[in-house]
Design brief:
- The chain is mostly beta strands.
- It has a single domain, classed as Alpha-ketoglutarate-dependent dioxygenase AlkB-like (Jelly Rolls).
- Helices cover 15% and strands 46% of the residues.
- Strands 1-2-12-9-14-7-4-3 form an 8-stranded antiparallel β-sheet.
- β10 and β11 form a beta hairpin.
- The longest helix is centred in the first third of the chain and has 12 residues.
- The N and C termini lie far apart (32 Å).
C-alpha cells in the first residue's frame, strides 16, 4: 500500500521516527485537499496569539486557553479511510486514533518549535500538496542536538517513543501552500 523508507538520518536518536512515502495516490491527495478546503478552517489560536495556519479539529480538541481537552465534532467520513491507513502504518487500531487535525499552511505559515501536548500519545501526520522539512531538536548541555526529515507530498510520519517525548519539532514558514492531516491517540494522562 505504501513504500516504507529506510533510516533517512543515520542517527540513532531518531530511531523511533517512522516515515513512509505514497500513503495516498495523487488522486486521493487532490480529494483530501479539496475536502480540507471545503471545511470551516480557523486560525490556530494559542492563548491570545493567532497563528497563520488554518485548522479544524475532530474527535477531540485541545483548548490552549483553558489547558483542557474536550470533545468536538466527530471525525468526518472522508477522513476514515486515511485514518485506517495511518493506524496500520503506526501498528495501531483505527479506534486508537481518536483525534484528527486538518491544517492548511498558506504562504508564510509554519509551525514553531513544540512537542504535542502530553494528553496525546501517538502522533501520525500526512503531508499534502508540497514538500516540507520537519526539523527536530532536543536540548543537550551547551545547546541543541538537531536533525531533520523531508516530508514529500503524500508521505506519512509517526512520532512515538523518544522522538515524540524528548525531541521538539517544527516546520519553517513556506512560500507555497501545504496541507496536512494529523491523527493522534490519547495518552494515559488524558
Amino acid at each position: 500500500m505504501f513504500a516504507a523508507q529506510s533510516d533517512l538520518f543515520d542517527r540513532p536518536g531518531l530511531a523511533s521516527l517512522g516515515l513512509a512515502s505514497a500513503i495516498v495516490t495523487p488522486n486521493e491527495e487532490r480529494a483530501l485537499i479539496a475536502s480540507i478546503d471545503g471545511v470551516e478552517l480557523s486560525p490556530f489560536r494559542f492563548h491570545e496569539w493567532f497563528g497563520k495556519r488554518l485548522t479544524a479539529s475532530y474527535g477531540w480538541r485541545y483548548d490552549f486557553d483553558t489547558g483542557r481537552l474536550g470533545r468536538t465534532y466527530p471525525i468526518p467520513d472522508w477522513l476514515l479511510p486515511l485514518r485506517d491507513r495511518a493506524a496500520e502504518f503506526a501498528q495501531l487500531t483505527p479506534d486508537d486514533l481518536v483525534q484528527a487535525l486538518v491544517i492548511r499552511y498558506d504562504p508564510g505559515a509554519g509551525i514553531g518549535w513544540h512537542r504535542d501536548r502530553p494528553t496525546f500519545e501517538h502522533v501520525i501526520g500526512v503531508s499534502l500538496g508540497a514538500p516540507a522539512t520537519m526539523r527536530f531538536r532536543r536540548r543537550r548541555p551547551g545547546g541543541f542536538e538537531r536533525a531533520s526529515a523531508l516530508l514529500p507530498p503524500r508521505s506519512i510520519y509517526h512520532l512515538a517513543g523518544e522522538v515524540r517525548h524528548e525531541w521538539e519539532h517544527s516546520i519553517a514558514e513556506m512560500e507555497v501552500t501545504r496541507w496536512s492531516i494529523t491523527f493522534r491517540s490519547l495518552s494515559k494522562k488524558a
